[in-house]
Amino acid sequence: MKPIVQRRRSTSAISKALSKTKSSREIIFPFSHPDNGLPVGAFGSPNSTFLLDERVHLTVGLQTQERHLFLFSDRLIVAKSKSSSSLKMKKQVRLSEVWVGSCLSEVSEKKISPENSFVLGWPTSNFIVTYSSPEVKERWLSTLQWHSNEMKQNECPKSLFMQILLMDGNNSSSNTTISISNTETADDIIKKTTQNLGLLGRPSDYHLWVIPGSGDPAYPLVGKD
């Protein structure tokens, strides 16, 4: 992936099947609440521990959808209710790839209170997740942060070299290579890049974009990506 910095212009059998399944595949499971016998092992891996589950609203842009989140010690599962008795898995993400933040205005044009909400993201996706109460939100936020950091600390490699291409409004460009760790955010990378290139202005004057691969469109990263 090649990141681009641009000046900001505006503001069990089932578990084995899951481990071999691409995250985009949809799988339907029988559903009941964990307290009443939900087979949480169907969502997790043999070495993971079930932590939390909650019905939430996920918002991106102007669209809001109801989803069910299952949090394990190593992954996050996003599911959709198919009926009162079944769920369809929409996404599973390793916690080492998950980030959280408070930049709600970067993700949606809707006015959403941060009291019950925060930004939840993983590569190529960012959502505002809204919980039923501030207490539930804080419990999820602290648990996600702790376990995500734990997974990142155990991840190898912990750092890599990234090539950055700077483009400005005059169609001129320059580039630099920086070393980043798996715990650094888009804001951290922008700050390093502007320092390396001796750029004027604040890091908030720039935006980081990523080109995933040949022929794929670039997408912007928000501060906590």
- The helix content, as a percent range, equals 10-25%
What CATH architecture label of the largest domain applies?
A: Roll
Alpha carbon gyration radius:
19 Å
Mean pLDDT over the residues: 77
What do we call the CATH homologous superfamily of the largest domain?
Answer: Pleckstrin-homology domain (PH domain)/Phosphotyrosine-binding domain (PTB)
Number of domains: 2
Characterize the overall form.
globular
Helices and strands, in order, run as EHEEEEEEEEHEEHEE
Q: Give the total of beta strands.
A: 13
Sheet with the most strands: spatial strand order? 2-6-5-4-3-9-8-7
**Amount of beta strand:** 35-45%
The biggest beta sheet reads: 8 strands, antiparallel
CATH top level class name of the largest domain:
Mainly Beta
**CATH topology type of the largest domain:** PH-domain like
Low-pLDDT parts are 6-25, 33-39
Pfam families: RHG20_PH
Protein name: Rho GTPase-activating protein 20-like isoform X1
InterPro entries: ARHGAP20_PH, PH-like_dom_sf
